[in-house]
Fold:
Amino acid sequence: MSSSTGENLKLTIFGQSHSPAIGMTLEGIPAGQRIDFDALSAFLKRRAPGQSALSTPRKEADAPEFLCGILNGYTCGAPITAIIRNTNTRSSDYEAFKNVPRPGHADYTAQVKYNGFQDRSGGGHFSGRLTAPLCIAGGLIIQLLKLEGISVLSRIRSIGDIYDEGELTEDISYKSFPTVSDEAGARMQALILDLKAKGDSVGGVVECILTGVPAGIGDPMFGGLENRISQTVFGIPAVKGIEFGAGFESARLLGSVNNDPFAYEDGRVVTATNNSGGILGGISDGMPIVFKAAFKPTPSIALRQQSVNLSDHTAACLEISGRHDPCIVPRALPCVESAAAIAIYDALLSRRKEA
Amino acid sequence: MSSSTGENLKLTIFGQSHSPAIGMTLEGIPAGQRIDFDALSAFLKRRAPGQSALSTPRKEADAPEFLCGILNGYTCGAPITAIIRNTNTRSSDYEAFKNVPRPGHADYTAQVKYNGFQDRSGGGHFSGRLTAPLCIAGGLIIQLLKLEGISVLSRIRSIGDIYDEGELTEDISYKSFPTVSDEAGARMQALILDLKAKGDSVGGVVECILTGVPAGIGDPMFGGLENRISQTVFGIPAVKGIEFGAGFESARLLGSVNNDPFAYEDGRVVTATNNSGGILGGISDGMPIVFKAAFKPTPSIALRQQSVNLSDHTAACLEISGRHDPCIVPRALPCVESAAAIAIYDALLSRRKEA
Amino acid sequence: MSSSTGENLKLTIFGQSHSPAIGMTLEGIPAGQRIDFDALSAFLKRRAPGQSALSTPRKEADAPEFLCGILNGYTCGAPITAIIRNTNTRSSDYEAFKNVPRPGHADYTAQVKYNGFQDRSGGGHFSGRLTAPLCIAGGLIIQLLKLEGISVLSRIRSIGDIYDEGELTEDISYKSFPTVSDEAGARMQALILDLKAKGDSVGGVVECILTGVPAGIGDPMFGGLENRISQTVFGIPAVKGIEFGAGFESARLLGSVNNDPFAYEDGRVVTATNNSGGILGGISDGMPIVFKAAFKPTPSIALRQQSVNLSDHTAACLEISGRHDPCIVPRALPCVESAAAIAIYDALLSRRKEA
Amino acid sequence: MSSSTGENLKLTIFGQSHSPAIGMTLEGIPAGQRIDFDALSAFLKRRAPGQSALSTPRKEADAPEFLCGILNGYTCGAPITAIIRNTNTRSSDYEAFKNVPRPGHADYTAQVKYNGFQDRSGGGHFSGRLTAPLCIAGGLIIQLLKLEGISVLSRIRSIGDIYDEGELTEDISYKSFPTVSDEAGARMQALILDLKAKGDSVGGVVECILTGVPAGIGDPMFGGLENRISQTVFGIPAVKGIEFGAGFESARLLGSVNNDPFAYEDGRVVTATNNSGGILGGISDGMPIVFKAAFKPTPSIALRQQSVNLSDHTAACLEISGRHDPCIVPRALPCVESAAAIAIYDALLSRRKEA
Structure:
């Protein structure tokens, strides 16, 4: 556990925000899978910072160097390792926080856990930058899922109190701000820019849908799809909640309403509604897997905040001057897709053992 | 994964609703821990069915027999196995569903996964009855946590649209219907009884709080407390969502509001608010760990439902006549506490390795 | 780890020699596998004590009770748990050793590890009796391997200085003393009876061969067949060495002799010799998997031995009066077969993920 | 499993002989451990090729680049990743073997397993070169063990039929050919050079001793020290056997001889002999942990060998012209030490959880 995950697939993510490099190792991908590096590149670009006024000006190519595991464009069965060199880092930005933990960040908890030996710079191993290797793994796996007929879609479901109503039915990742309603998206962007100007930040919700997952994927109890997906999705910094299908709403419903009636459609079992989010007893029922992840607002804000000085045990004030996203949600979409894809692919591998 | 969980602690849950026995094996509890069987018994009683008009009339002693691992009242270091014999089962109740999967249940997904070889009777391995061994493990571990100064509290936060406002600050497990507000509790019970009379069911939300967890517990990324707790809590049938601290609400907040300011109190670092639910970067910050789990309504309802006949591929209607809880939430409290305790104790064991 | 093993298959063994029961849980067996309980019974009988003058007079039916996981003779996909009740135990035999650890046993190391809380009686969790649940798991899995065309053979290769020369080419498990040469077997039995009369014991070597394992099973590095098999075989008490193919002998050979030349036979790649024991780079090459396991002599001997008294830190003498096998090797054959079968079946499940 | 190992410590080894880089990630090392890079360098040099007439002329600096996990010379708690760039590779040497698997190598088994997509060049992921990252991990961990008072010693116990008699009692790693008897060492070297001239190779045995391991380390059954050490040691290519203490010899002994009598020495429990190799019931007894690993002769020999052509299913001859060690054993010492150190350190971390 910790920086590794997976039952059949083993993903290890390594690196700190300002260490020489960050990267990932992915073990368990069958040999002979063709890798489309252009598709991967396009996928990673969706997460990359510095692309619009909405995100941090830190510019990173985020171009992964593959060290092993892929030969002539095909996986060779050996572990796949890719790294991204860290450049354009400004560690001095963080010197001021050495003894004054930033509220909402892992500074204080890392200090306690690692007894002061943690890498503080840029948040160290806790930095959102570590989602770049997550997206390398996810980008590769999404390609493999596509070959099995599985698509991974996502959208910004809400920013603050602004909701993207309507249903997500197709891939809208080509949009620079992926909401179903462009009008809602425009209001969200205005809100984010407004908060940026005020030095504040805001949270939001990402919705993710996996279509084409065959029925029978997942395991009972602790190996259910909810368990597996939440285990990877909470690996993304700032996620504080997750719900499947109707989720928290289903807690308010009657059984007669929440139960999804079965029916045959083109000789295939479907459900008339999908309050279960495509998962019954931890196992896929053939309907789309639907879940939402709640992101807290970026903890790095420019406003003056109250904290403590850990060296002299006094109260302290803090103003963070670094470059930060006023809202992490737009860049989080490929991260959520990656986490879901990793979990589902691992469950797919488990399914093969039952054949 | 699947019916086993844990990194340092290994918990395996086995059995089907109507197999000769159900049970659990717990590996990794240090030797020399004193076990209070009376306290365990009292804990298990909170989950046991047949205690009030609110729950299924199936009566079960749920008295575990310990087969090994405990000697003269102390753990001996060997794996602990306890079983509960299944009695008072009425398998014939389920014969009718053989080819007609019950909506909201794992009948259909188990059929696909196990190709018809699954134990259908009483839901088989997917039955809520399997939470009894979960509570044996949880009940033991809650005793161990108490010795470390950690308490596990819970309450019914909502049933349908009725909310238990006010804050949970003390153990209210002595209440037969554990809400902070007895008035809210009375309204919830009335709603449940009303729905029972109508043959319907309703969902709800459980809030769980762990106090006394020292700062520094948990690991980065996939080993965070959110990951760990969600991985076990989703092992409870019917859970469809989980949120930590302000959770989904934090997605609507500004960073300046959501960030929990640090302060010193009696020489100890605390936060003025606890929107993070006591977890930053996956690691405890010393404040109470707070989370909520959403339970869908019991899928077994007496009302007529639409389903399919898997043998002849036609539409089919279904009426379920068995004995079922109109709302599983009241009995789910010790299950949620157990799942959380197991996750936290496992993280505590991980912490010891860093010493 | 510890009392659990397996990557895809999860085997947990629980119990102490004199606890109410011992048993095992096996998770990961696909649903729909037919179980032959008579064959299992016959297999377990090979390990059972009290069958001849060679072994301990403790009589045990060793008849497993299956608590779950098998329905109408077929695996149902849920974890399989079976237990054996402990009866005919004479704990008082062990009272004398409470503070005087028996040489060659785990008494002293368990005392240090569990700080005196271990179950001393009959060796507790370290007892050879725990190989009974190992053989339940092994017996089930050997049936599954047979369906894949894989047979598991074994023989007593040596007892003390007496060797069973000749090659093991067929199943000789029907023999009460399974050696290829009955004459060698007779001499071994005479030696054992002689040592029994003298209150002494002797070790030996078991050879195990798995035929029909297809090429391509196993993984590089830490997941090789040697790693996997040794990991389970050393789980049998008293095993102190293992070698594959020519093993230690190959350390004395020239490369030109040790290398197994490839050839085609009936359109299939074979090797002219099998010094590698059917494993190259951790992966099966289609030739028989061959390994030998060295068993130390039973540490329980009737002769007076030198030890210490842990309570008063003095030297102490010890005479063990209990009932013990003068040579464990004959009864160890099904244990070795089980350990090998478990490892190979787990590797077979891994192989399916690559399809 | 596979290219990852460890229960508390997670080691992942990645790379192929001729991929851009090879490397390792080590997760689970507590924060705040001081790393001595000079000591690591000296350790790695013992494994490096091209140092004497005995080994392959392929020259490699084998200088690891640390990408993360170490800050200002101290571990920071995040995963440690180090890589070694592959240079000085001559892939064309291997083109000839594309369809003609080299006897004794993983060529054929990899072909079957990876369906032709494996990286053949230099043996790919199966190359002995992958022991370099193993030694990075081992070199780091040996430093940590030293702080706990644990030393890891090794020697060449035999090459072919030449034995290094006498006992290993001190660190002889400073010797260029580490045998206790320099005379025996000289004869071994002469044998190796003679075989090199003949284009042949030879195997040998490495003995490894860990002193200072406290009693109580290790777990019962599948988590015993024998299981753990063999699981990592068989990760070194060419190892075909392992034995602990008297090992295979103990199979020939009487119990009265093999049992190690306990005694008090300076208030500490010791054993008069150490036939158990310091391990009873899988757990350390405080005596030195002693084991031997058998290495088969290097399969790459210059002599003409018999093989098959996998493309046209015919017999084929093979002459290997690359640069290879006529005997891998001298360079294998730090690999064996590393594997043992990794296993023991992991068991030490497990032990901490019992406190």
Notes: Chain B has a mean pLDDT of 93. The CA atoms of residues 18 and 89 of chain B lie 6 Å apart. The first strand of chain B starts at residue 4 and ends at 5.
